[in-house]
Write a structure and sequence with these properties.
- The structure is a single chain.
- By secondary structure, the chain is of the alpha+beta class.
- It is built from eleven helices and ten strands.
- A four-stranded mixed β-sheet has the order 1-4-5-8.
- A hairpin with a 2-residue loop joins β2 and β3.
- α3 packs across α6 and α4 packs antiparallel against α5.
- The chain is globular and about 80 Å long.
- The termini are far apart.
- The structure holds flavin-adenine dinucleotide.
- The site of flavin-adenine dinucleotide has 22 residues, from β1, β3 and α11.
Length: 381
Amino acid sequence: MPVDRLLPSAEARELLDLVRDIADRELLPLAASYEREERFPREVFRTLGKAGILGLAYPESQGGGGQPYEVWLQVLEELGARWASVAVGVSVHALTCFPLAGYGTTEQQERWLPEMLGGELLGAYCLSEPDAGSDPGAMRTRAVATDGGYVLDGVKAWVTHGGHADFYTSMVRTSDARSGGISCFLVPADAAGLTADRPEDKMGLTGSTTATMRFEGVRVEADRRMGAEGQGLPIALAALDAGRLGIAAVATGLAQAALEQSVAYAKTRQTFGKAIIDHQGLGFLLADMAAAVQTARTTYLDAARRKDLGMAYAQEASIAKLVATDAAMKVTTDAVQVLGGYGYTRDFPVERFMREAKVMQIFEGTNQIQRMVIARHLAKS
Ligand SMILES: Cc1cc2nc3c(=O)[nH]c(=O)nc-3n(C[C@H](O)[C@H](O)[C@H](O)COP(=O)(O)OP(=O)(O)OC[C@H]3O[C@@H](n4cnc5c(N)ncnc54)[C@H](O)[C@@H]3O)c2cc1C
């Protein structure tokens, strides 16, 4: 049974039906084998691009789908329920388009945005470095202005789609000022001097490639800079407010999938002469899982509706990321418990869900950093 969603229009309902259909046909059948083989499904992103899904959250005037954020996030949730690696990739791709869509000139937007939002080009987002994750102001990768352009040198770590992307939205230091000295560049994958290391050997989300990117004398034209010199960190942080909601939605989808697997199993597995769902101790565990999933969904939707209304939503985005990813960790761990010994095997997907949930508490700002953001808002209020 599909999740019974509160959607703002009949058009949104049709869109969700279409997304569910595509996800059931194109994502679900591949997920387990690609994750096991650690294969990156580049062709799936092409399919989603052709269906118009990658640009849904951007205005139609820019070549996007013009959907409200509350609808976009529910699309991500549906993808996350079928294949978290792809859903994370879709969310990250949307993040990589944010600086150009929000801060690029009309000329820059006309040149690159249609292919980015149309899914012909896949993006990667380079903010983190080996020694600058939670604290991006500590970054060291540098762009030096030269005749008509910049030369970039440094190392960006943990790049989702690293080595597969067509462009790299990169935050790079253009002066020593800690936060006012960072600028944003759109670096094409074929730029000379840009290389990817061997992908990280991860605990989960193994269908999503994560790699260190090396910038060695990478020359870009001046028109590859998005926004003003020094505006890069505010752009990156604004992009992350929206991106965090994407991760919250994907985590909710993952938790929903774990809940569905658990309920289906608990209805058929018998102990002491009855289905385990009819043992109150286990039924209460499932009830808590359902409550956690619903709380996660409601929390990200509240933040999305604020964003759609043009209200401030940064604090709510951090709350949503914290609540939804902690819920996904709890629900997927409990799903393994519901399936007993079978839950601990690779015959069922719940152990994979549990490994996938863990990283959601770490990327796009760890959950400690979300608490820091929330506490700062409280201190300012
Ligand atoms: C699979 C994966 C994909 C990723 N994709 C991308 C990507 O596409 N682009 C990108 O730029 N980055 C990406 N990242 C990087 C990710 O955003 C960082 O790993 C994350 O921000 C944490 O940084 P760190 O790993 O350096 O940990 P650190 O910053 O070293 O933190 C270590 C621990 O200390 C805690 N901590 C740090 N500072 C504080 C504080 N002030 N108060 C309390 N606790 C604190 C953290 O919460 C954490 O528990 C990805 C990471 C992973 C694992």
